[in-house]
Design brief:
With 259 residues, the protein is α+β, with helices and mostly antiparallel strands. It has 2 domains: 2-105, 2,3-Dihydroxybiphenyl 1,2-Dioxygenase, domain 1 (Roll); 123-258, 2,3-Dihydroxybiphenyl 1,2-Dioxygenase, domain 1, CATH 3.10.180. It is built from 7 helices and 15 strands. The strands form 3 sheets. Strands 9-10-11-8-12-15-14-13 form an 8-stranded mixed sheet. It has a 4-stranded mixed sheet with strand order 4-7-6-5, covered by helices on one side. A 3-stranded antiparallel sheet has the order 1-2-3, covered by helices on one side. The longest helix is centred in the middle third of the chain and has 12 residues, at 133-144. It starts with a helix and ends with a helix.
Length: 259
């Protein structure tokens, strides 16, 4: 945990705060006054199942128990049954194509997901590399009510943008063979993309793709931290701040990032 904390505070610029309980060592990352995400050791049970370090997204639901049951009925899996935790009631689950995520209800004050996806330090885009994007979208649409919000159609593939509650938040596509398993990839908003990419490398991580330019003037890079967890950066080049728009972030991120 200490090594991961040092890496991400350097690369993204987050502040780290201890949020441990008697039974769980936990670090909370914040961008300014907004709590953004958390860090914990990979549980022994997960290691025994072959899990590796990764970022995991939480989807807020009205009833974790009901949602977990629906996931099983829709062909997904429940790895950690609904349980109360330091951030609320949660359950760790997977879609039918094995991409993992978590359910959460009752986030405690100070630990709510920031609403503004464009601000620096926030998670600005959520991207699913699926085994079959159409089947994946059918699953998530049925489970959460996510809706299609336009698509980029290439010669051989489609990038499907989706929205939740009227807000465009991510996209999904059928992964390339070099990505061995389906997974969710999270884009962290940073300032200067080149400086951030250098911080990734100097911190022992890898820049796998990019930085590459998007039509709206933004830049993205796909990375891996020193412990093997995949993540992505999105920012600007030779500018202060971060300019984000759904037009480039949705329609172009996949094509530019993984080709």
């Amino acid at each position: 945990m200490a090594a991961a904390e040092a890496f991400y505070t350097k690369v993204v610029g987050w502040d780290a705060h201890d949020a441990s309980t008697p039974n769980l060592a936990y670090t909370m990352f914040a961008a300014g006054k907004a709590s953004v995400c958390g860090l914990m050791d990979l549980p022994l049970e997960a290691r025994k199942m072959g899990a590796t370090p990764r970022w995991m997204g939480y989807v807020s639901v009205n009833d974790v128990d009901v949602a977990a049951d629906r996931i099983k009925r829709l062909g997904g899996a429940v790895y950690v049954p609904p349980t109360d935790s330091n951030i609320g009631r949660i359950s760790v689950v997977a879609d039918p194509q094995t991409a993992t995520f978590a359910l959460v209800k009752g986030l405690k004050p100070g630990r709510r997901r920031p609403d503004d996806l464009a601000k620096q330090g926030r998670v600005g885009w959520h991207e699913l590399l699926a085994a079959d994007w159409e089947k994946a979208f059918a699953f998530y649409g049925e489970l959460f009510g996510w809706q299609k919000a336009g698509a980029e159609i290439g010669r051989t593939e489609t990038y499907q943008v989706f929205s939740a509650g009227g807000q465009t938040i991510g996209g999904m596509f059928t992964k390339r063979p070099e990505d061995p398993i389906p997974f969710w990839l999270f884009y962290f908003n940073i300032g200067d993309i080149d400086a951030a990419a250098e911080r990734v490398k100097s911190g022992g991580g890898q820049v796998l793709k990019g930085p590459v330019e998007l039509p709206g003037g933004g830049w993205i890079a796909r990375c891996r931290d020193p412990q093997g967890a995949a993540f992505a950066l999105q920012g600007t080049r030779n500018q202060d701040g971060f300019g984000w728009s759904t037009e480039w972030a949705g329609f172009s991120s996949k094509g530019r990032l993984v080709t």
